[in-house]
Amino acid sequence: MTATSHIDLLADLIKLLKKHGPETFRSLAAALRDPDQLASLSETLEVLSQQSSRLGASARERTPQRTGLRKQLDTLAETAPDKAALLRQLLEQLMASDGIPLSDLRTYARQAGLPQLKSGNRARVAQAFVAALLDLDVPQIRKHIEQLAKPQENDRDLAGWSRIILDPNLRSAKTG
């Protein structure tokens, strides 16, 4: 083990100290003074390290990076129940398979200046869209919902291409 990995391990132990409290660590220290307990812990750590190496690096590095949108909405419901209810309703509508096409949702987010929605399944895209609205106030969220409900202009149909070709403002905006 290198000095850096020792430091990383100690940093993780400090986080666990904060999580479990000093009394738990005191009792662990007392248990480690017992030779039988120490041998048992040593054997357990050896087994865990062998199992960990079998999993591979990618499995060890895979950790949840977000707490979950539904958990965030539950927390939000305590302080802003109307906002949380509105966002939950939007999420349910977006998750419905007969809802707005994902391409329209991504296009709207881009045009509205919201964070880019990456490709993924319906649930992932819908959750990312609703998560982008979490920091907005209720009137802004309602405005986005109203805009989203309006039929999107499709500039790839014949009328859209005609407008792009014939309208000099659009032509220069699209190419420049």
Can you walk me through this structure?
It contains 11 helices and no strands. The relative contact order is 0.06. The termini are far apart. With 176 residues, the protein is an all-alpha fold.
Concise summary:
This protein has 176 residues and is mainly alpha-helical.
Q: What percent of the residues sit in helical stretches (DSSP H or I)?
A: over 70%
Tell me the number of helical segments per DSSP (H or I, 4 or more residues long).
11
- What is the end-to-end distance? 55 Å
Structurally, how many domains make up the residues? 2
The proportion of residues in beta strands is: under 5%
Largest sheet: none
- Encode the helix/strand succession as letters: HHHHHHHHHHH
Work out the radius of gyration.
26 Å
Low-confidence stretches: 57-66
How many DSSP-defined strands? 0
Structural class: mainly alpha
What is the approximate shape? elongated
Mean pLDDT: 78
Relevant terms:
mainly alpha; elongated; 11 helices; 2 domains; 176 residues; single chain
Furnish the topology, listing elements before pairings.
Blueprint: H1 3-20, H2 22-33, H3 35-55, H4 57-61, H5 69-79, H6 81-95, H7 102-111, H8 122-133, H9 138-149, H10 158-166, H11 168-175
Helix pairs in contact: 5-6, 6-8, 6-9, 7-8, 10-11
